[in-house]
Amino acid sequence: MPELPEVETIARGLNSRVAGDVIESVWLGSKPEPLKSPAPKIVAAVESKRIAGVRRVGKHIVFDLENGGRAAASVKKGRAPRTSPPTSTVAQWIVHLGMTGRMLVCQPGQDIEKHTHAIAKLASGRELRFVDPRRFGRLSVAQGFHAPGFEPLGVELERFVTLFRGRKTPIKSALLNQKLLSGVGNIYADESLFRAGIRPRRRAASLTRENLRRLYLAVQEVLKEAIALGGSSISDYVDSDGEEGFFQLQHRVYGREGEPCLVCKTPVKRVVIAGRSSHYCPKCQK
Questions:
Q1: Does the annotation mark 276 as catalytic?
Q2: N or C: which end of the chain has fewer CB within 10 A?
Q3: Which helix (H) or strand (E) holds 56?
């Protein structure tokens, strides 16, 4: 499942390419699973709306929409998505990619891939296509959408410490709790815990303030590095241009079960915590 760096990469790419364009019409497929909002509601909220910007909220891609008009003549290339909606927003188109979802900018003449569940025709002549073979992704519309937890790249140290101090669950489970931090997933929790020198099974309540400070810095470092490298392409993930990320080449423990630790050469171990695989070095992590 795409995590924060992958969704951030996709949102930035979409924002640089379609912000300012107008959604002229929307086609939705017949499969009910991808639609979290009723089809007529999505169509009514999205059609004839200008895309004010595209940004990430937790693990969701959010298209901020404003009342339509002529598409912008040009879009500033590489512009980062807003962290909050513009004041003119009248609706938000929310895309959750699930495990295999992709949001692609296509030319109208391109072949339509199997498992395409939505096509938005833009005034520029291009199309936004949502493709999801396993149909775990979701499309919805809302106003004032927000994530249930704190933004991992925006939360302050003191708040971070307060979130995890005293919790009886394993720290790995706590990191994956989207009501605490929205966006951190399995890959980046493992990589952050390795850099902080903390075993994934340790109870959050057992961590000292210094442990939590190191973990806070590790989460920030790992997420920023992963975003800079376009995320991790483990399975189906590609960005809005169909390109893979490169952070998987920097993984120090995730997916490296039995391989030597890159620091101490001890074989990396894998355990299952609350149904999720966790990878760690038994020597470097305490």
A1: yes
A2: C
A3: strand 49-57
Q: What is the number of residues in the chain?
A: 286
36 is catalytic: no
- Which residue, 73, 52, 69, 64, is CA-closest to 95? 64
Domain boundaries, the chain: 4-142, 157-280
**2 tagged catalytic:** yes
- Give which of 43, 142, 55, 54 is closest to 90, Cα–Cα: 142
Kindly list the distances between the CA atom of residue 230 and the CA atoms of 5, 176, 280, in Å, as whole numbers in the listed order. Answer: 7, 21, 23
Q: Which CATH class for the 4-142 domain?
A: alpha beta
* This prediction's pTM: 0.87
pLDDT tens digits along 187-237: 999 999 999 999 999 999 999 999 999 999 999 999 999 998 887 756 555
Q: Report whether CATH 3.90.226.10 matches the domain 157-280.
A: no
Q: Which of 49, 59, 102, 252 is catalytic?
A: 59
Catalytic residue status for 59? yes
